[in-house]
Amino acid sequence: MFQIILQRKKEYAKVSKPEKNGKTYKDEPSTIGELIIENESGEIIFRCATCENGGESTDTPNQDKRIVARTYQLYWTESSVALPKEWKPKCISTYTDALASHKGRRIHIHIGNYPQDTEGCILLGMQDNGNGTIGGSTIAVSNFYGIINKHGIENFRLEVREI
């Protein structure tokens, strides 16, 4: 069994996303963390930064908030979230037997650099920019999906840890 550990590291109270194509964004809090994948021997085979919504974690659906710290299983689904072109529309999502309604939240792991991109999901990036955002998201998600696909999604567990 492969272990994915998402360790939340730091919260930022007010993160801005630049205007894009005439669209403006409200400032939002963010939580930056680190995600690692350990193989069966406990050896780290992948490492990246994460970005989630800031503030409290919740199990309540239809909230733009991060998920509760616990262990989750992963599954493949289809989604229109931002994904590397080689994976569209196939997406990795989370579920837990501890809470049947969690699957309905559709918490995905996908591309994004700002908390405004999360909608409660987990964003991956190759670097922590030190300002509540991450960078290199497309590469990080592509590499992460490749590892999961190669070894079989049923062989992974995601453990989310609070700050």
Fold and architecture overview:
There is one protein chain. The chain is 9% helix and 40% strand. The protein is mainly β and 163 residues long. The strands form two sheets. Strands 1-2-3-7-6-5-4-10 form an eight-stranded mixed beta barrel.
Key attributes of the depicted protein:
163 residues; mainly beta; eight-stranded mixed β-barrel; two-stranded antiparallel ribbon; 1 helix; 10 strands
How would you summarize what this structure contains?
With 163 residues, this protein is mainly beta. Helix content is 9%, strand content 40%. The chain has one helix and ten strands; from the N terminus they run βββββββββαβ.
Give the integer mean of the pLDDT values. Answer: 95
Residue windows where pLDDT falls under 50 for at least 5 positions = none
List SSEs in N-to-C order.
EEEEEEEEEHE
Work out the oligomeric state of the chains in this entry. single chain
Shape: globular
Number of helices: 1
Provide the β-strand percentage band: 35-45%
Kindly name the structural category. Answer: mainly beta
Lateral strand order in the biggest sheet? 1-2-3-7-6-5-4-10
Radius of gyration: 15 Å
| Helix percentage range | under 10%
Largest sheet: 8 strands, mixed, barrel
Amino- and carboxy-terminal Cα gap: 25 Å
Total number of beta strands: 10
Give the SSE map.
Layout lengths: L1 E14 L12 E11 L5 E10 L17 E8 L11 E6 L12 E3 L11 E4 L1 E2 L5 E2 L1 H15 L4 E6 L2
Parallel strand pairs: 1-10, 6-7
Antiparallel strand pairs: 1-2, 2-3, 3-7, 4-5, 4-10, 5-6, 8-9
